[in-house]
Design goal:
It is built from 14 helices and 17 strands. The chain is an alpha+beta fold. Helix 1 runs antiparallel to helix 9 (293-334). The longest helix has 42 residues, at 293-334.
Length: 492
C-alpha cells in the first residue's frame, strides 16, 4: 500500500520546489523593495530600543526584587512583628540607610497603621488602597500602583507583604513605599535616541514620570506636569491593555509625524509594577537604518535561497524513506490512550465497528461500559497523579481477565468500554462480574496507602444488526442503573 505513494510524494515535492524556486526571485525582489525602506529599519530600532529598555528594566527589577527580599527579612524580626515604638524606630533606621524608600510601616487588618518609619502626626488608615485589598484577598505579596502617601505626602509605589501567624493566617501587613523621585533619577541617567521620550506608567496607566521632563517638539509647548494623570495617548493605553505578557511595538501618527513606541513591562510577584514606554520619531529610525539596508537584504536573499535549495535536496534524497514509518507510528499513537496504553475512543470504535461489520447479522455480541466509582473523589482527595495511577492499574487489571479477541479501550475520563464478540448473554454477565471482582478484590496501592476501588458496569447484549452506537447507548443506560442502585455492580 505504501509503494504507490512514494512516486506521488516525490513528484509533489519536486514540483513544489521547482515552482517555488521559479517564483523566488520575484518574491525576493518585492521583499527587497518593501523591506529596505521600512521593516529592516524598524527591526534595527526595536532591537536597539529593547536593549536600552531591558537595561533600564533590569535595574528596576533588581530594586523591586530587593524590596520584596527586604520585606521578607523585616517580617521575620520580632522588633517589627510586635509593632509599637520599637518597630517605628527600627523601620526609621532602615529607610535612613535605604534612601530609595519614602516610608516603611506595619498595618493592622483593619487598615490602621500601627507603626511607621515616618512620624504619625495623625491616625492613618490604608484600607482603601488597592495593594491592601489585594493582600487581604490573596494572602500573598503584592505591589500597588501610583499613590500619594498618606504619611509621607509624596508620590510612591507600595510593595506589601502579609505577616502570617502560626496558623498561616494574615495577622498584619508590612509595606515599603518606593520613592518615585528616586526611580525617576535612575531613568535620567540614560541617553536616549534623538528627539525620543521615555515614560514610566503604573499598572493603571498613570504617568509616574517622563525623561526628559521638558517637551521636545513644538506641538508640546506648554506641556503640563503629567504626574499622576492618565497617559495622554489613548491608543497606546489601549494597546498596552490588550497586550499579553509581551507588548509588541506600535506605530502612531501624531499630527504631521509618525512615532514608533517600544514597551517593556517590569513585573514581580506575578504583578505588573510599571510599564516603560519609549517614543521614537520614525524619521530618526529610518535615518539610522537605511544605509545598511542593501547589505542586510542581500544577505537575506542569499540565506533564503540557500535554505530552500538545501531543503529541496534533503526532501528528495533523505526525507522520503523515514516518512512512511513516521506515518505508521503516528497512526498507532492516534488510536492509543497514552496513559493506560489501551485503545482510545477512536481506536475502540473503529475496531469494534469493523468486528460488527465482519460478523453475521444473527451473531450475538456484547458491549460493556465500565466506570470507576467515585473517581472524582479520588482525584480531589489524593491528587491527579494518584488518579492517573488508579487509571493505569484499573486498565491493567481488566486486561488480565480478557481474551485476545475482545476489544478494550478507554473512551473518556474514568470510563472504559469492552466489545465481546460471539458471546451468550450469560457469558457476558459472567465476564462483567469477573472484571468487577478483578477491580475490587485487592486494594490499590498509592504511595504506601491502600485504597479500595470499585467499578460499576453496564452490559448490552444483542445481534450485529444493532450497530455500535446503539450498543453503547444501551450499555450506558445499564451503567446508569448500576450507579443508581448503589454502584459496584453489573446491570444488563
Amino acid at each position: 500500500m505504501s509503494t504507490p505513494k512514494n512516486p506521488v510524494l516525490k513528484r509533489r515535492l519536486l514540483l513544489t520546489s521547482v515552482i517555488f524556486i521559479a517564483i523566488l526571485p520575484v518574491f525576493l525582489s518585492a521583499l527587497f523593495v518593501t523591506y529596505r525602506s521600512f521593516q529592516q529599519a524598524k527591526l534595527d530600532a526595536v532591537y536597539r530600543s529593547n536593549s536600552l529598555l531591558s537595561h533600564i528594566s533590569e535595574k528596576q527589577d533588581q530594586l523591586i526584587a530587593q524590596t520584596f527580599q527586604s520585606l521578607r527579612i523585616l517580617a521575620l524580626l520580632p522588633e517589627v512583628r510586635q509593632g509599637g515604638n520599637t518597630c517605628g524606630k527600627f523601620l526609621a533606621r532602615f529607610i535612613e540607610q535605604n534612601p530609595f524608600y519614602e516610608n516603611a510601616a506595619l498595618v493592622r487588618l483593619d487598615g490602621n497603621v500601627s507603626c511607621s518609619a515616618l512620624p504619625l502626626k495623625a491616625k492613618a488608615n490604608v484600607h482603601d488602597r488597592d495593594w491592601f485589598k489585594l493582600v487581604m484577598r490573596t494572602g500573598s505579596a503584592q505591589i500597588g500602583g501610583l499613590q500619594l502617601g498618606k504619611i509621607s505626602k509624596k508620590p510612591n509605589i507600595v510593595a506589601a507583604l502579609p505577616i502570617l501567624d502560626k496558623d498561616e493566617e494574615v495577622q498584619s501587613i508590612l509595606y515599603l513605599a518606593l520613592s518615585v523621585q528616586w526611580l525617576e533619577d535612575v531613568f535620567a541617567e540614560y541617553a536616549l535616541p534623538k528627539d525620543s521620550k521615555l515614560t514610566a506608567l503604573d499598572a493603571n496607566g498613570l504617568v509616574l514620570f517622563e525623561h526628559p521632563k521638558l517637551a521636545i517638539k513644538s506641538e508640546d509647548k506648554g506641556h503640563e506636569n503629567p504626574y499622576g494623570k492618565l497617559y495622554p495617548k489613548e491608543k497606546i493605553r489601549d494597546h498596552i491593555q490588550r497586550a499579553g505578557t509581551s507588548i509588541q511595538p506600535a506605530r502612531l501618527r501624531e499630527e504631521t509625524e509618525h512615532f514608533v513606541y517600544i514597551f517593556e513591562r517590569i513585573a514581580t510577584e506575578d504583578r505588573v509594577a510599571m510599564v516603560v514606554v519609549l517614543r521614537i520619531p520614525e524619521l530618526e529610525i529610518y535615518h539610522d537604518a537605511k544605509t545598511n539596508a542593501f547589505t542586510l537584504i542581500s544577505g537575506l536573499l542569499l540565506s533564503v535561497l540557500t535554505t530552500f535549495l538545501l531543503a529541496y535536496i534533503a526532501a528528495k534524497y533523505l526525507f522520503l524513506k523515514p516518512v512512511e514509518a513516521e506515518i505508521e507510528k503516528l497512526h498507532d499513537e492516534a488510536e492509543t490512550d497514552p496513559l493506560t496504553n489501551v485503545l482510545n475512543r477512536r481506536g475502540f470504535e473503529r475496531l469494534a465497528s469493523e468486528a460488527l461489520s465482519a460478523a453475521g447479522g444473527s451473531d450475538h455480541h456484547a458491549v460493556s461500559i465500565i466506570d470507576i466509582d467515585h473517581f472524582k473523589a479520588i482525584n480531589d482527595t489524593y491528587g491527579h497523579p494518584a488518579g492517573d495511577a488508579v487509571l493505569k492499574e484499573f486498565a491493567h487489571r481488566i486486561k488480565t481477565v480478557l481474551r485476545d479477541n475482545e476489544i478494550f479501550g478507554r473512551i473518556g475520563g474514568e470510563e472504559f468500554a469492552l466489545f465481546i464478540p460471539h458471546v451468550t448473554r450469560e457469558t457476558s454477565i459472567v465476564l462483567a462480574e469477573r472484571i468487577r471482582t478483578a477491580v475490587n478484590s485487592l486494594p490499590f496501592t498509592l504511595d504506601e496507602k491502600k485504597l479500595t476501588v470499585t467499578a460499576s458496569l453496564g452490559v448490552c447484549h444483542a445481534t450485529s444488526r444493532m450497530g455500535l452506537t446503539r450498543f453503547l447507548e444501551k450499555a450506558d443506560k445499564a451503567l446508569y442503573r448500576s450507579k443508581r442502585s448503589g454502584r459496584d455492580r453489573v446491570s444488563i
